[in-house]
Amino acid sequence: MHELIEELKIKIIETLNLIDVSPADIDVNDQLVGGDLGLDSIDVLELVMMLEKDYGVIIDTKELGIEVFASVTALANHVFHHRSETNV
Amino acid sequence: MNNPRIFITAMGIISPLGRGLGETLVSIKQAERAVKSLHLFPTTQNPLPVGEIDLRDATTDMPRTHILAMAAADEAMRDIKEPPDAVIIGVTTGGMTLTEDLLRKGETDPGCYRLHATNTIAEAIAGRFGCRGPVLTVSTACSSGAAALKIAAELLRTGQARHVLAGGADALCRLTYYGFHALQLVDPAGARPFDRKRRGMTVGEGAAMLLLSASATPPPDALAEYLGGGLSCDAYHPAAPHPDGEGALRAMQEALSDAGLSAGEIDYIQLHGTGTADNDRAEARAIRDLFGDLPLPRLSSLKGAHGHALAAAGAMGAVTSILAMRYGFIPANVGFTEADPLLNLVPIQQSQQAPVKKVLVNAFGFGGNNAVLAFGDLSGHVSSVASPAYKPKAPFFVYGRSGLSCAGDLEETLTRLQVGEPFPGIVANENILKPLSEKAVRRLKRLARMVLSLAVSACGEKPEREAPRSVFLGTGWGSLSETHDFLQKLFTSGERFTSPTDFIGSVHNAPTGQAAIHFQATGPNITMTGGDCTFEQALYCADLLVRDDPILLVGADEYHATLSPLFDASLAQTGIPADGGGALYLSRHPSGASCQVTVPVVAFAGDEISRIPEMISALGGVARIRERFGLILAGIPWAQQEKGKAQLENFRTLTDFPRPVVDYRRFLGEFTSVSALAAVLAVRMVEAERIPDVFCQDGSPALAGRGILILGLGHHVTALEVNPC
Fold first, then answer.
1. Are residue B177 and residue B59 in the same domain, yes or no?
2. How far is B498 from chain A, CA to nearest CA, in Å?
3. Which among B182, B442, B496 has CB closest to A19?
4. pLDDT of B293-337, one tens digit each?
5. Is B533 helix (H, G, I), strand (E, B) or coil?
6. Which residues of B touch A17 (CB under 8 A)?
7. Does the CB of B286 have a partner CB in chain A at under 8 Å?
């Protein structure tokens, strides 16, 4: 799980072109959207695309999105339980 | 003389509901739902519902948007003998449907992409009907068609035109189909505007064109009267509407005030009603705020019937609302079955017979761009607000300017120009970023960054004066990086993955939406994509639309290594990459300004060489030109050299201009909005009261109180003046 969390942090930074943010700056339990990172709904959609492409994880409702993108920990948990091996 | 009244004297439409007014009328009265699974191109996943038009019988190799636009224009102009004095078309997709096929095939011949540009649609229409006046292309996302009609009406009010053909057109393409899907804005069951279970929009296509005529009384062929229009910008978010519908409300209020109407006089509003959760909620709120305690008029959106035809939507709404007035019925809000208690708004569910005398048409788009139009029947509307006589407006005075070229900022570009040698090239990234926080622009790519950089440099980070309230941009190609990256990701993933951010950024008016958010500029926000004279078109529209407010005017284009050489014929022929632009912070008030700018000529030359005598006359005649200007900067796009050089020769022969004439593209390079860079350089020269020594073989470089004339030559002829105050 720790590896997955670190991997996701890097993917978030790269996917969203977060300037001056390193993985260590992201608190895994902090609010991911609308928090200190300045992420909003467009970033969420960009991450949805990344999750489907890199992990085969599909998030297609707003309710699920709110749950999954609550924090990096929540995200990692969801990916861990729903990833499809063919896409890894 | 009072403002002339403006009448719709002819119109045409094509949509999934039918070809022409007759079929459309029948389909709408029967509340037909023309939303069906996509057929136009194969998809790897189940095709989503779309509003698609069967064009298999088309006998032309023109791209789809052109075919649709021409069908609507042909219907509108069928019984009209005189050419229109101007053509103003709202469009976002241009030749994209064909371009996608070509790019996927790896086609490298620029000739195949000659109809990619959005401006080729207005030009094709102008060519067909012999228009030799302004031929303008508006690209403000889903409000484009409505914005084009508003601009047309303002042009008629100046008395400079009597008949203007205006409207909107857009075709289905992968960019919009997959783009809205990536934003999770498509309802898999088809759009259900204002319904409790609505899940999004249905992407569609179509075109509608209207002939607007100025006249003191209704002409015999009048179908309806244009009463007014309102433009606004949310200045809130690049893609989502303001949650309280603030911008939508302001646009409706502006339209009513422009028309001299009160909200209670409106019988019917054709809503934008896309079917997305956010749009419908914001629009419902705006409607509630507009009417307060008054009963609501009848309301419906047709997006559940024919889908959302993007740039065409506002013009289609105008045509279908005029049909509703003429035939006395209210169109049904197809797709709606269950009221949403959170909206407090119930649209008309069955089409019903009812007299309709005054309507509003709403059209909202990305970039928080809102346009609302008011039309009336011919029963003799007398405006409750006395419409003031048209007064020629003051010129725009310059309070700030900026430029970007491969040489650096405006000062560095001027210094480089003084060397007297060509220096085409592309702007360095660090120069674009200089006035910006990279963190703040992390989601923006090259063009949006350039526009924001130019804007901040021209107005200052915190403008000492009032911040610009309106934003105008001229760009030939829009955001090429985002367009390219979106399609590249789509194609390489077998049409499975795209970037939502790139889709939002790919819209032509994305950069002006960003500038509006930066300056909280809530007035008109207009992006023109008029080819090589797009910057002049932007200034021309600013002059038509803006009374007192300070404005930001930008012209910019980005070089993209793959797309620019395919799309831009001039750049392709020289083979030398070039980009950049310029920005002006302008106001109607002279006090404290450094100089003034006007654009007295914007006209389509078509295949004719000689538009020059008219241009000379519009500039005040030979004597004024010889006396007024110390330098002429002539812009001749490389691909239009033959025509442009002949035009310039004609101009020189007729005026015998005694001072230097410089072909500025040879120095600055080939990109569509290069005239913006020429204009800001001219501003610097007029401020310094001298022109570069290298341009003066024998005369003095001192301007001695004279101004600079910037000519645009080729398919369009334009004249832009920079004069001392």
1. yes
2. 7
3. B442
4. 999 999 999 999 999 999 999 999 999 999 999 999 999 999 999
5. helix
6. 442-443
7. no
Chain B residues in contact with A46 by the CB 8 A cut-off are 499-501
Fold adopted by A2-87: 1.10.1200
For the residues B148-161, what does the mean pLDDT come to?
Answer: 97
Per the annotation, the verdict on B242 as an active-site residue is no
Domain span at B675: 396-723
Q: Which of B442, B500, B504 sits opposite A49 (nearest CB)?
A: B500
Tell me which of B116, B131, B142, B560 is the catalytic residue. Answer: B142
A22: closest CA of chain B, how far (Å) = 13
Whether residue B449 is found in the same domain as residue B585 = yes
Average pLDDT, chain B: 95
Same-domain check for residues B81 and B173: yes
Instruction: Specify whether B288 is located in the same domain as B161.
Output: yes
Contacts of A64 in chain B (CB under 8 A): none
Look at residue A15 in the predicted model and tell me its pLDDT: 95
Asked if B115 reaches chain A (Cβ–Cβ under 8 Å), the answer is: no
Does residue B13 lie in a domain region? yes
pLDDT of B389 reads 58
Region B78-92: what's the mean pLDDT? Answer: 97
Question: Rounded CA gap, B263 and B292, in Å?
Answer: 10
Alpha carbon of B112 to those of B94, B95, B124, B298, B508: distances in Å?
A: 14, 11, 16, 48, 22
Determine, for residues B500 and A45 on separate chains, whether the beta-carbon distance falls below 8 Å.
yes
Is there a domain that residue B388 lies in?
A: no
Is there a contact between B438 and A19 if contact means CB atoms under 8 Å apart? yes
Average pLDDT over residues B476-497: 97
* Residue B386 covered by a domain: no
Query: Is position B308 annotated as part of the catalytic site?
Result: yes
Tell me if B381 is assigned to some domain: no
Q: What is the pLDDT of residues B664-708, one digit of tens each?
A: 999 999 999 999 999 999 999 999 999 999 999 878 899 999 999
- Give the span between the Cα atoms of A22 and A18, in whole angstroms: 9
The minimal CB distance from B239 to the residues A16, A42, A52 is found for A42
Same domain, B451 and B347: no
The CATH number linked to B220 is: 3.40.47.10
Q: Which B residues in the span 419-438 are in contact with A, Cβ-Cβ below 8 Å?
A: 438
**Chain A nearest C-alpha distance from B671 (Å):** 29
pLDDT band at residue B384 using 50, 70 and 90 as cut-offs: very low
- Domain stops at, among B342, B376, B410: B376
Helix (H, G, I), strand (E, B) or coil at B663: strand
Q: One-letter amino acid identity for B41?
A: F
pLDDT, tens digit, 9 for 90 and up, residues B491-516 = 999 999 999 999 999 999 999 999 99
Task: Give the torsion sign (CA, B289, B246, B276, B304).
Answer: positive
Calculate what percentage of chain B has a pLDDT beyond 90.
93
Instruction: Tell me the ipTM for this assembly.
Output: 0.91
User: Is B364:B234 a contact under the CB 8 Å cutoff?
Assistant: no
**Side chain identity at residue B659, one-letter code:** R
Check if B272 is active-site.
yes
User: Which residue type sits at B42?
Assistant: P
Among all residues of chain B, which has the CA nearest to that of A21?
A: B439
Q: Are residues B344 and B410 in the same domain?
A: no
Cβ B274 vs Cβ B301: under 8 Å: yes
Q: Do A75 and A68 form a contact (C-beta atoms < 8 A)?
A: yes
Residues of chain B neighbouring A49 (CB-CB closer than 8 A): 182, 497-500
Tokens linked to B417? 């120009």
